[in-house]
Amino acid sequence: MELIPIKDHIYYFKAAVNIGVLKGEKGVIVIDTGLDKAAGSKIDKLIQSWNSTLLHIINTHSHADHFGGNHLLLKRYPDAQVWAPTMEEAFIQNPELEGICLFSGANPPKELQGKFLKAERSKIDHIINGDFSIDEWPFNISFVPGHAHQQISIHVNGVCFAGDCYFGREIVKKHKIPFLVDADLTLESLDRLLNSDSEFYVPGHGEMESREKVQETLRFNKEWHLDNLKRVQHLIEWEDNGLTTDQVVAGLAELHGIVIDNMTSYVLYQTAVLGYLRSLHAREIVEVSFYKNSWRWRKGH
């Protein structure tokens, strides 16, 4: 993890999961805390090096890699206040819900309860419903759902901490089927960020960019999702009896040269594919049918 200065008293830890750091007169505010206690420990060491204290944690959404450091930090700074949007708060305080959702509502097997899907639970002190201020920091909040159900991006003094509203281009190229829960909301959120006017943008995964540069990255994300939607549509159009969700997942993975060989990867890809299918179904491009006791997606009429 490398601490990168952005503007006066605003930094981010450049890492697999980027973490925002605001150094205020009274103490430190962090935006997301990384995957686990190792990330939390790095944040703690920085705060100690500044002879400061942790005042607040703001979580953009409830995925384990964005609040996994909360637990350690709250042990060391028990008076720190934690902020999150309503629906994300439910998952952060009850992290077992993530595995349950990904396993279709059933209790998940142990393979879906590792740290990448289930962080230590964290308290939430404040629900984020819109803009708010803490001391000298004015936070402008944009709700950018799609990757998560009620994800937010945070604009503060010309810097946008975007959560996972978008990904760096190399991240998209690596994963090929970026995680989402709703393709339409993802596209709308990308447009919302395209129309924002911060000077600098820090995604949850990828490089910080200026407003001019991030426009290209946001359009790249949008075009990638639109291409995946077309790929899913074309897969279904070829089969008269339609395809099961498993077959759509396998087909899209094959088109991208992806090899899925573990439960965690599978349920993440499956959820993203369902997010695409939901979009196509809403527009009546595909419809649901049942064939040989299986749920099929087939071309709409």
Structure, explained:
With 301 residues, the protein is α/β, with parallel strands linked by helices. Strand 9 and strand 10 form a beta hairpin. A seven-stranded mixed beta sheet has the order 1-2-3-4-5-6-7. A six-stranded mixed beta sheet has the order 8-9-10-11-12-13. Strands 14-15 form a two-stranded antiparallel sheet. The model has no long low-confidence stretch (mean pLDDT 96). Helix 1 crosses helix 3 and helix 8 crosses helix 9. The chain is built from ten helices and 15 strands.
Features:
301 residues, 10 helices, alpha/beta
Distance between the termini: 52 Å
Low-confidence sequence ranges: none
Please compute the radius of gyration using only Cα atoms: 20 Å
Mean pLDDT: 96
Shape: globular
Write the layout of secondary structure elements.
Blueprint lengths: L1 E6 L2 E5 L4 E5 L4 E4 L5 H13 L4 E5 L5 H4 L2 H7 L4 E5 H8 L2 H7 L23 E3 L3 E3 L2 E7 L8 E5 L2 E3 L7 H7 L7 H12 L5 E3 L6 E2 H27 L7 H12 L6 H20 L3 E6 L2 E6 L2
Helix pairs in contact: 1-3, 7-8, 8-9, 8-10, 9-10
Brief overview:
The protein is α/β, with parallel strands linked by helices and 301 residues long. It contains ten helices and 15 strands.
